[in-house]
Amino acid sequence: MPTIILRHVSKSFRRGKRAAPKPPADYTHATEEVPSPYALDDLSLTIRDGETLAVLGPSGCGKTTLLRVIAGLVKTEAGEILYDGVPLSQIPMPERGIGMVFQNYALYPHLRARENIGFYDILRGQPDRIPERIRTIVEVMGVDLRYLLSRKPPTLSGGEQQRVAVARCLARDPKLFLFDEPLSNLDAKLRSETRVQIKRLLKHYRITSVYVTHDQQEAVALADRIAIMRAGRIEQVGTFRTLYDTPKSAFVAQFFGTPPMNLFSGHVYGQRWEGRGFNVQPIRPGLRQGQAVYLGIRPEHVAIGTEGIPARVEYSEPIFPSRQQLLHLDLHGQPCVAVVPLSEAISAGQTVYLRFSGEHLYFFDQESGVRIG
Ligand code: ADP
Ligand code: MG
């Protein structure tokens, strides 16, 4: 299983070279698409031997392009891609050992699932290997795969087709597994079932894998590490905990975590951060006087009490499995979300009082989005 290193890789689909525009300064809409002439923009990334790395980012940020570049299917304008230190261009396609699973299932519709899975053994003139191969794959992916084997793709549901597609990839003995949003066309129930099977298989085979998704739940469930991608670049790579506790930027803070972190615009004055309708002090020393700074706090850290910052309840959204509710609040015209126990009787129109305790606060430079405290 190879370690894969991408260094300063750029890929543009436009002619001529142009500087990429800066992402918009307004990070409160950070999850929207950011236009850039580069699909990949000076991107560096290491995928460790045997790990599952999830690449999580909004639609259009370059995830599919990244996978195609890793597979060597598209030419890049700059940078290098190394498989265990060897430039990808020096490795012939058949020796790269790449298995890809796409969003749409790409099975051969006229072949039964069994022949789809055994396709590469048939190509290699070793059809006698198929029964043993199928036995192992069924063992890992679960018995329900066995019931699909004699059916043709058009008679299978989306989730079933995707399971067969994954099994077919495995049958190539891949050294590297690339998944491009394989579950995004499935409904919620199938998505979670298929996710479990993919998880089982990734744990069993420990094949180096890159799993592209825009669904953070999927990334958290499947990956050893997560790379947050934005406008052709990797913003941050880390475990779920690292990204959640120590986001490097307002973009990561808002993109990762459900519901997203609350951000408020404000300025630094002396030892105080002053926002619209409320302020916080003391804050960390060393910030520039008058510096425009976002204050961030996660909804699960907003406490509600009898005194504090007044906010009006717009509506409450129950989350029954965890016995909680999301309060959508209006804080001096700024949206704010809080998670509180479902047992608290709170109704729309009511005023509640919020406490933002110091240890849960984040600060981001408003211009660059970089975290500063
Ligand atoms: P994602 O998979 O994250 O949604 P893509 O990698 O598909 O993003 O696309 C990244 C950017 O590159 C988008 O702006 C897209 O329009 C552009 N792009 C992707 N493929 C092509 C192509 N073959 N020709 C021109 N532009 C492309
Ligand atoms: Mg894509």
The CATH class of the largest domain, by name, is Alpha Beta
Order of helices and strands: EEEHEEHEHHHHEHEHEEHHEEEEEEEEEE
Radius of gyration: 24 Å
Outline, from the CA principal axes? globular
- State the distance separating the first and last CA atoms: 39 Å
Ligands and ions found: adenosine-5'-diphosphate, magnesium ion
Number of domains: 2
Mean pLDDT metric? 90
Share of β-strand residues: 25-35%
The largest pleated sheet is described as: 6 strands, mixed
The CATH homologous superfamily of the largest domain? P-loop containing nucleotide triphosphate hydrolases
Number of helices: 10
Percent helix among the residues? Answer: 10-25%
Summarize the structure in words.
By secondary structure, the chain is of the alpha+beta class. It has two domains: 4-97 and 174-252, 3-Layer(aba) Sandwich (Rossmann fold), CATH 3.40.50; 259-365, Nucleic acid-binding proteins (OB fold (Dihydrolipoamide Acetyltransferase, E2P), Beta Barrel). Helix content is 23%, strand content 32%. It has helices at residues 63-70, 93-96, 113-117, 119-123, 130-141, 158-170, 188-205, 216-222, 240-245, 250-255, and strands spanning 4-12, 38-47, 52-56, 78-83, 86-87, 98-101, 176-180, 208-213, 225-230, 233-238, 262-269, 272-275, 279-280, 292-297, 302-305, 309-319, 324-331, 334-341, 351-356, 362-365. The strands form four sheets. It has a six-stranded mixed beta sheet, sandwiched between helices. Strands 13-12-11-14-20 form a five-stranded antiparallel beta sheet. A hairpin with a 2-residue loop joins strand 4 and strand 5 (86-87). The radius of gyration is 24 Å and the shape is globular. The chain starts with a strand and ends in an 8-residue tail after the last strand. Residues 29-33 have low confidence and may be disordered. Adenosine-5'-diphosphate is lined by residues 13, 39, 57, 59-65. Magnesium ion binds next to helix 1.
